[in-house]
Amino acid sequence: MCCLPSIDLTATGIRIMQLRERTGLSVQDLQDIFGFTTPQAIYKWQRGATLPSLDNLVALAAVFGTTMDAIIVRNGEYTGSEAHSA
Question: Which of 42, 57, 60, 69 is the most buried (most CB within 10 A)?
Fold first, then answer.
């Protein structure tokens, strides 16, 4: 039986943080863009505690100028430098 891919939450969080930093945005900037009253959701995404909803993932991709697939890291694929080339 084939193994289905799964999302590496921690690596995806790191990638979100790297993409945010690469685009020159602060957590506060993302909070404002998304209209969140607190930054907690963004911090949870960055530490891999939760994933963004599908709607928020679409928005993140637009904000970062990339694709949703470039944000999500599958188990076994993260090398630590991929976010710089994503």
Answer: 42
